[in-house]
Amino acid sequence: MLIKQAGDIRSSDITPHSTYLRRREFLAALVTLPIASKMATTTDAVTRKDAITSYTNYYEFGSDKGDARENGGAFKASPWNVTVDGQCGKPGTYTLEDILKPHPLEERVYRMRCVEGWSMVIPWDGFPLGALLKRFEPTAKAKYVEFTTVNRPKEMPGIRRQVLNYPYVEGLRMDEAMHPLTILAAGLYGESLLTPNGAPLRLVVPWKYGFKGIKAIVKIRFVEKQPFNTWQEANPAYYGFYANVNPDVPTPSYSQATERRIGEFLQRRTLPFNGYAEQVASMYAGLDPRRLY
Question: What is the extent of the structural domain holding 49?
Answer without folding.
Answer: 24-291
